[in-house]
Amino acid sequence: xxxxxxxxxxxxxxxxxxxxxxxxxxxxxxxxxxxxxxxxxxxxxxxxxxxxxxxxxxxxxxxxxxxxxxxxxxxxxxxxxxxxxxxxxxxxxxxxxxxxxxxxxxxxxxxxxxxxxxxxxxxxxxxxxxxxxxxxxxxxxxxxxxxxxxxxxxxxxxxxxxxxxxxxxxxxxxxxxxxxxxxxxxxxxxxxxxxxxxxxxxxxxxxxxx
Length: 210
Known about the structure:
By secondary structure, this protein is of the alpha/beta class. The chain is built from 9 helices and 4 strands; from the N terminus they run H-E-H-E-H-H-H-E-H-E-H-H-H. The chain has a 4-stranded parallel beta sheet, sandwiched between helices. This is protein-tyrosine-phosphatase.
């Protein structure tokens, strides 16, 4: 019941990858930054954005190469400094309104650990792709209500609109690869996160306290 009472005023988003030091923290930090830019500090505070790893390097900071991919937004220092990797726990999944994995394997782990999350867990690129099919005019104006409605709209499209290629909904793991691998993963994440934020908080939406 507590979660249902929160739904009208808060939206909890959880990103999941393997080690929680590359893909999911990049998505977490960038999402939070973009929401503040669109909604201001007060408006963005209604969105609880977090991340975790299915085989997390618990207690570690971000991988240096992925961290550098945050530099265009000036987030590679203070924001990245505050990040600490953590392992995925069932209560994190239960508390989230939306769980986005780096690929379908992460979603499978999420559902295995918390079967009730079947309807609210996706791969990041899958969710962004399906969100692009939603008519923005069908969504409420208020951002939190808009986010909840978007999840429901996307859920109804899953299975109806498959990806053009099997790998289209994946974000390759850059761990162990050169800096270019981290850059390529960051580009895919940035594209997906930007599309989702554009749907939740379209440009020009009134800022609720900068």
